[in-house]
Inverse folding.
């Protein structure tokens, strides 16, 4: 059967719409299966299932909930190769990167399982005698998880694992570009024996499924990763809920005159064209010191021309397709804009083959306020900007609305430390590209990249739990705080 149902209350069920939509292989443009066009009614059914499962799941001790996460991690590991191949077929990224995507899911389920064994609160003295004070963690309730397509397994896992271990029940809506990878993950959650109703999945459009999840008052928390525009819509329409937003980026790599240029060029290439530029942490700007800018540009162009574009399943491919036709059109549109704003150094064309391919593209001598240096293109388009010194580099780096990742290549410790202090971003790398987050460290951005949540690491459970403060008075009399007699 090539038609795939929704997952509600532990059962695979068709949508009430009776309609489906296809998921396309971006390397061929052909359908790999059809998925449910979910409705408001499906969302309501899933909320009901999640509400029913809530009490028992939240009463299950978190070290016991953790056991399910460990099992999910083990099953993902056993199936890693098959899952990665299926991911490349649906999302397009090259196979080794798909393996990395599955590995992040393996790691985060394992890490968050460990959090279930901790789930620490604080204890602190009361200001009164014979009274103690502490905090405990409580689940939020039913949470809506809405995800994009670029990390089709890792991002859902980054949210589902902490949400589960904190005792929430979940309604998960994946991107309509990658519903099969989402289904693969949910099948593994089912195989691990997670009780019915704890994780529910409804596929479908933003209008019919996403909007209902965001606005439904029975959903107590939203965890969203996607574009700034959608994040803004969610903030304005969700009502009073706990909301976590992980949005776009316009990340820069600064290269100082003392840097190892070979190393910097490798890092820029990986940051700009890895995942075909479709990472929130992609390096879409290289900010080069004027003394080395010419040399760096030569190196980058030389190396970029050698990159092999093709189906991500082929071993020799360096750069896979873009996710869909719209993404190719966006890269074409920005290339037209870029030609007016800078010098096209290489690339700039879609491939005349089936599938959604676009050449890795570099613009040089781009000014900081150019649109290609300001707006998130989410394709393989790099702008090189020139600066005179570190202060100017940091000003240019910070002169965008986003603040997710950043990097500096330098062999001068003072330059590195100053950049760490002054760059406005959630992540700064030194002598390494803007990509490569590890699951045991917090991940997130500042400014228009988000609303302050940090996923993964020891901070990852904060988004999915509420803190309850507890006072226990064992004095046997009425004691009043703040010195009131
Ligand atoms: P998108 O905002 O178009 O869609 C993301 C998800 O939200 C999809 O499931 C979509 O169906 C749903 N959606 C869209 N509109 C909605 C609405 N009004 N109500 C409810 N749901 C809605 O983003 P995308 O194109 O899938 O992903 C690319 C974007 O994601 C880029 O901007 C990228 O930077 C960002 N991203 C950020 C991070 C991060 O951690 N900061 C990670 C990956 C991707």
């Amino acid at each position: 059967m090539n038609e795939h149902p929704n997952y509600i209350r532990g059962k695979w069920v068709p949508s009430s719409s009776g309609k489906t939509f296809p998921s396309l292989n971006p390397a061929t443009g052909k359908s790999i299966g059809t998925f449910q066009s979910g409705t408001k009614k499906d969302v309501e059914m899933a909320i009901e299932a999640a509400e029913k499962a809530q009490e028992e799941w939240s009463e299950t001790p978190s070290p016991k909930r953790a056991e399910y996460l460990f099992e999910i991690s083990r099953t993902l590991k056993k199936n890693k190769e098959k899952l990665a191949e299926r991911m490349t077929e649906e999302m397009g990224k090259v196979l080794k990167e798909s393996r990395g995507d599955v590995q992040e899911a393996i790691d985060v389920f394992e890490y968050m399982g460990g959090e279930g064994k901790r789930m620490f609160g604080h204890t602190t003295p009361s200001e009164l005698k014979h009274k103690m004070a502490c905090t405990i963690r409580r689940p939020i309730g039913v949470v809506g998880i809405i995800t994009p397509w670029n990390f089709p397994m890792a991002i859902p896992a980054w949210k589902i694992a902490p949400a589960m271990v904190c005792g929430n029940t979940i309604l998960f809506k994946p991107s309509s570009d990658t519903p099969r990878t989402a289904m693969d993950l949910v099948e593994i959650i089912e195989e691990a024996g997670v009780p019915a109703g704890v994780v529910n999945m409804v596929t479908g459009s933003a209008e019919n499924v996403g909007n209902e999840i965001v606005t439904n008052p029975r959903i107590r928390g939203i965890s969203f990763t996607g574009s700034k525009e959608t994040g803004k819509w969610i903030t304005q329409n969700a009502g009073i809920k706990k909301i976590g937003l992980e949005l776009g980026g316009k990340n820069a790599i600064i290269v100082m005159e003392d840097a190892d240029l070979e190393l910097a060029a490798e890092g820029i290439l990986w940051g700009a064209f890895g995942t075909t530029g479709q990472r929130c942490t992609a390096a879409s700007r290289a900010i080069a010191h004027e003394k080395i800018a010419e040399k760096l540009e030569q190196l980058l162009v030389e190396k970029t021309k050698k990159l092999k574009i093709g189906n991500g399943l082929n071993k020799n491919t360096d750069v896979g397709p873009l996710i869909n036709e719209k993404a190719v059109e966006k890269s074409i549109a920005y290339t037209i804009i870029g030609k007016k704003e800078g010098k096209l150094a290489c690339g700039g064309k879609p491939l005349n083959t089936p599938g959604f391919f676009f050449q890795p593209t570099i613009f040089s001598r781009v000014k900081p306020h150019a649109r290609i240096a300001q707006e998130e293109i989410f394709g393989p388009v790099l702008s090189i900007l020139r600066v005179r010194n570190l202060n100017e580099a940091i000003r240019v780096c910070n002169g965008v609305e986003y603040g997710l990742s950043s990097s500096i290549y330098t062999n001068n410790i003072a330059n590195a430390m100053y950049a760490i202090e002054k760059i406005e971003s959630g992540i700064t790398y030194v002598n390494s590209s803007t990509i490569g987050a590890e699951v045991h460290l917090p991940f997130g951005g500042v400014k228009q990249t988000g609303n302050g949540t940090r996923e993964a690491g020891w901070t990852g459970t904060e988004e999915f739990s509420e803190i309850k403060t507890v006072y226990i008075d064992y004095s046997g009399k009425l004691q009043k705080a703040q010195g009131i007699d």
The pocket of nicotinamide-adenine-dinucleotide is lined by residues 146-151, 155, 173, 175-176, 206, 210-211, 214, 225-227, 230, 233, 246-249, 280, 376, 378, 404, 445, 449 (CB under 6 Å). The longest strand covers residues 131-139.
